[in-house]
Amino acid sequence: MAPVTVPDPHPKDPLHGVTLEALLTELVAAYGWKELGGRIDIRCFNFDPSIKSSLQFLRKTPWARKKVEELYLWHKAGG
User: Fold this and answer.
1) What is the tens place of the pLDDT at every residue in 30-65?
2) Sign of the torsion angle spanned by Cα atoms 6, 9, 11, 14
3) How many CB atoms lie within 10 A of CB 42?
4) pLDDT at 4
5) Domains delineated in the chain
C-alpha cells in the first residue's frame, strides 16, 4: 500500500512557513537598519530600531508589513 501524500495547502505562497521575525532578521542582516530604513521609510527602522519594536509595528500595520514582505521576496529572488 502506497503512503498517502497530503498536498501542500499553500503551494503558491512563497511566505508560507516564514515568520515575520525570521523575515525581518534576515533583511536586517542583509541590509542593516540604515539601508532598510532608506528602502522602507518607517519610523521603527529609522529611529532607535530593534526587532521587537519593528515586529510590534509591522503586526498592526498591514501596509508596512506588505512593503517588508515585498522587499523580502525581492531579496530572496536575487534582487
Assistant:
1) 999 999 999 999 999 999 999 999 999 999 999 999
2) negative
3) 18
4) 65
5) 20-76 (1.10.720.30)
pLDDT score of 9 more than 70: no
Q: Locate 5 and state its grid cell.
A: 501524500
What are the cell numbers at 24? 525581518
SS (H, E, C) 20-76: HHHHHHHHHHHHHHHHHHHHCCCHHHHCCCCHHHHHHHHHHCHHHHHHHHHHHHHHH
C-alpha cell at 41: 521609510
Q: What is the pTM of this model?
A: 0.82
Confidence (pLDDT) at 79: 78
Cα–Cα distances in Å, from 66 out to 2, 9, 63, 69, 76?
41, 21, 5, 5, 15
CA 34 centroid distance within chain: 16
